[in-house]
């Protein structure tokens, strides 16, 4: 089997195919929901797919350096188990991010089953003593890439979801979901001249053969905010993922010198991840609520890119109090006030912090009503 054939077989691996389907479903679901709720798609750009490819390529080179230099090796059956757990993580991806959990669970299940001599078609017949080290390296990579996905400048990709509040007023929550599949270059040891039907054999030394292969690593983020600013929620997420990345690096070093500690180290990281998932939801719940329908103006739910609203630097959560010197109480009054000057827009806005700001911009000459603001319908 040629290197090209091995490379092409990467694109038919189950986890990669499932992730591509998930990205497509996420895009079409978002656009359909926005058109149904706001009568217009906030952003028709297929940024889910664009980010998926861009991040996969940029992370690939970093991952290649780490895995090749550290000599990470994973049994083929373990890779199949990971892909099965990764697909399960994708199924729950809309509600919670389990991409790092899938890596840690793969290592834990494998080590526990081998320790208690449990046999399965998804378990390798034997494990290298540095298996725990390899899993911890992958966990550190996954957490590090999650930090990179949750960038501050990506706050424009928070998508709104409108719900009915307890007092009859509508509320809106925002969800930040990024996902990619990173190709990892790993070495698969094959003994007694056994050839893998899935990967490309590199070389043979005595009775040990090595196979070069690409393993798909699921990296995803899922941040929601109902009572916090976007930067606050992303900052909290990044801090915890940075901590987990550091733990993974430290624990992998320990496991490299003390292989028997791998099970305990993986268990600690796994429990830390579960605690973080719970604390992340609690963090948002303790915040001050901002995104609620108000009668003292028009609450901005979202802003379309490349529009006058975007040029005025309006952001979700802003409340428009005046338009063209006219006080407004709702969306209808806002659009009526816009008609007073079809070429220019002057807004008095209250930010989420309670500060007042003036926003001004020219309007589209042929469509002054298309300012680019999405409001509660």
Topology (elements, then pairings):
Blueprint: H1 3-10, H2 14-38, H3 47-70, H4 76-91, H5 99-115, H6 131-149, E1 159-164, E2 170-191, E3 200-205, E4 208-225, H7 230-257, H8 262-285, E5 298-303, H9 308-311, E6 319-323, E7 326-327, H10 331-338, E8 344-350, E9 356-362, E10 373-375
Antiparallel strand pairs: 1-2, 2-4, 3-4, 5-6, 5-10, 6-7, 6-8, 8-9
Question: Could you give a quick summary of the protein structure above?
Answer:
The protein is an alpha+beta fold. It has helices at residues 3-10, 14-38, 47-70, 76-91, 99-115, 131-149, 230-257, 262-285, 308-311, 331-338, and strands at residues 159-164, 170-191, 200-205, 208-225, 298-303, 319-323, 326-327, 344-350, 356-362, 373-375.
Whole-number average pLDDT? Answer: 86
Number of helices: 10
Given helix and strand content, the structural type is alpha+beta
Count the domains.
Answer: 2
Helix content: 40-55%
Backbone shape? elongated
Indicate the low-confidence ranges by residue numbers.
Answer: 192-208
The total strand number stands at: 10
First-to-last CA distance: 59 Å
Please summarize the sheet with the most strands.
6 strands, antiparallel
Beta-strand percent range: 15-25%
Radius of gyration from the alpha-carbon trace, in angstroms: 25 Å
Tell me the series of helices and strands, N- to C-terminal.
HHHHHHEEEEHHEHEEHEEE
InterPro entries: PDZ_6 (IPR041489), PDZ_sf (IPR036034)
Domain PDZ: 300-345
Transmembrane segments: 7-28, 56-75, 131-150, 171-188, 208-226, 247-271
Keywords: Membrane, Transmembrane, Transmembrane helix
